[in-house]
C-alpha cells in the first residue's frame, strides 16, 4: 500500500469510529483536529458543521461539501425494566436491527444491544414478519434507576463502529456514508495546502444531511459562492441489481449527470478525469440528486453545483464497504477539477 492510501486508511478509521448523529457525537472535533494544520481557517459552526478555508490566488469561491452526520436513532422511552425504546433518524432497514450493538450518546456513552425474541419463542406469524423499529428495544444491562442518570428522552443513538480491513483495499465500518467523502476532502485539503490553491476553497462538512439539509442550506447561503462540488456516496454492487442500479468498487469515482448539474461542470469533471487518467463512472440523475446538492444548487440566485459519488456497498448499515482507491481517486479528480476552474 502506498503512503497516500496508508494515510487515508488512518484518517478514515478515525472518522468512522467517531460518532455523529444530529448535534451529538465527537466526530466534529475529530475532523477539526484533522484539518487545522493545513487550513487558513478552521472552526465548528453552531449548526454542527465543520468549516475549513484554504485561500487561493484567484478570486473564485468554491465550496467543497460533504455531509458529516450519520444515520442513527433517538431515545423515546425508558421502561421500568430498563429497556430503551427508540425511533430512527435518517432511515434504516428494520430487518437488520435485531442483535445490533448500539451506542447511546447520553451524559456518557453507553453500549447496548437491540433485543430480539429467540426464534424458539416466536409464533409462526411472528417469524414471518419484520419487527418494526417502534417494537424493538435496546438492552444496556443497567438498572433503570442507574440508566436514567446518564440517558434522557431525546438522546441520540448510533451503531457501534468497528473498522475492519477486508481483502486488499476494501474496508468495512459504519458511517462510510458519508465519512468516506469527508476523508476524501481531507486529502484534497492536504494536497492543495502544499501545492497552493488556485481558488478560495471553502470546505464544509455539512451537518444534518440525513434528515434536514440544515448545514448545506446555511453555508451555501452564508458564503458568496461561484461553484460547489458535493461529494457523497452511491450504491455499490449487490446481487440481483441490474446495470445502472449500482456502480462497481475499485473502478473510480461516479460523476453524476442530470438536470440539476450544469453541463459545463459535468464536462469539466470528465475532461479532468481523462487528462489525469483517472477511471470514472457516470450516474444519470434525471431530477434531484438525493444529496446536499439539491439544497445548494437552488439556494439564493442558484449556485452551479456538481456531484461526485464514492461507491459503497450496504448503505445505511453498520457494515458498509468501500475501496480506499476509489476515495483516493476521487480526491485527485477534485484537485484536477479545481485547477481547471
UniProtKB/TrEMBL annotation:
Binds 2 divalent metal cations per subunit. GO terms for molecular function: aminopeptidase activity; metal ion binding. It comes from the Bacteria. Its cofactor is a divalent metal cation. Zn(2+) 2 binds at residues 177, 210, 316. InterPro entries: Peptidase_M42, Peptidase_M42_aminopept, Peptidase_M42_dom2. Zn(2+) 1 binds at residues 67, 177, 232. The keyword Metal-binding applies. It holds the Pfam family Peptidase_M42. Belongs to the peptidase M42 family. This is M42 family peptidase.
Amino acid at each position: 500500500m502506498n503512503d497516500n492510501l496508508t494515510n487515508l486508511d488512518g484518517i478514515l478509521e478515525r472518522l468512522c469510529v467517531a460518532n455523529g448523529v444530529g448535534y451529538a457525537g465527537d466526530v466534529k472535533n475529530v475532523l477539526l483536529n484533522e484539518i487545522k494544520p493545513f487550513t487558513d481557517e478552521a472552526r465548528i459552526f453552531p449548526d454542527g458543521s465543520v468549516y475549513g478555508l484554504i485561500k487561493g490566488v484567484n478570486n473564485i469561491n468554491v465550496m467543497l461539501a460533504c455531509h458529516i452526520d450519520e444515520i442513527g436513532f433517538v431515545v423515546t422511552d425508558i421502561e421500568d425494566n430498563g429497556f430503551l425504546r427508540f425511533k430512527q433518524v435518517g432511515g434504516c432497514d428494520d430487518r437488520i436491527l435485531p442483535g445490533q450493538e448500539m451506542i447511546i450518546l447520553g451524559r456518557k456513552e453507553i453500549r447496548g444491544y437491540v433485543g430480539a425474541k429467540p426464534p424458539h419463542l416466536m409464533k409462526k406469524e411472528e417469524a414471518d414478519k419484520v419487527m418494526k423499529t417502534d417494537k424493538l428495544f435496546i438492552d444496556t444491562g443497567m438498572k433503570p434507576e442507574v440508566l436514567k442518570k446518564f440517558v434522557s428522552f431525546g438522546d441520540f443513538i448510533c451503531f457501534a463502529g468497528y473498522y475492519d480491513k477486508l481483502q486488499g483495499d476494501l474496508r468495512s465500518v459504519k458511517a462510510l456514508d458519508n465519512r468516506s467523502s469527508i476523508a476524501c476532502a481531507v486529502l484534497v485539503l492536504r494536497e492543495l495546502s502544499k501545492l497552493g490553491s488556485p481558488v478560495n476553497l471553502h470546505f464544509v462538512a455539512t451537518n444534518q444531511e440525513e434528515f434536514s439539509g440544515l448545514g448545506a442550506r446555511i453555508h451555501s447561503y452564508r458564503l458568496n459562492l461561484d461553484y460547489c462540488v458535493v461529494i457523497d456516496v452511491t450504491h455499490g454492487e449487490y446481487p440481483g441489481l441490474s446495470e445502472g442500479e449500482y456502480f462497481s468498487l475499485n473502478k473510480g469515482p461516479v460523476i453524476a449527470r442530470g438536470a440539476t448539474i450544469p453541463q459545463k461542470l459535468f464536462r469539466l469533471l470528465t475532461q479532468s478525469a481523462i487528462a489525469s487518467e483517472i477511471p470514472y463512472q457516470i450516474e444519470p440523475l434525471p431530477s434531484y440528486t438525493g444529496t446536499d446538492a439539491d439544497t445548494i444548487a437552488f439556494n439564493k440566485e442558484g449556485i452551479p453545483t456538481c456531484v461526485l459519488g464514492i461507491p459503497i456497498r450496504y448503505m445505511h448499515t453498520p457494515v458498509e464497504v468501500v475501496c480506499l482507491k476509489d476515495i483516493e481517486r476521487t480526491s485527485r479528480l477534485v484537485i484536477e477539477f479545481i485547477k481547471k476552474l
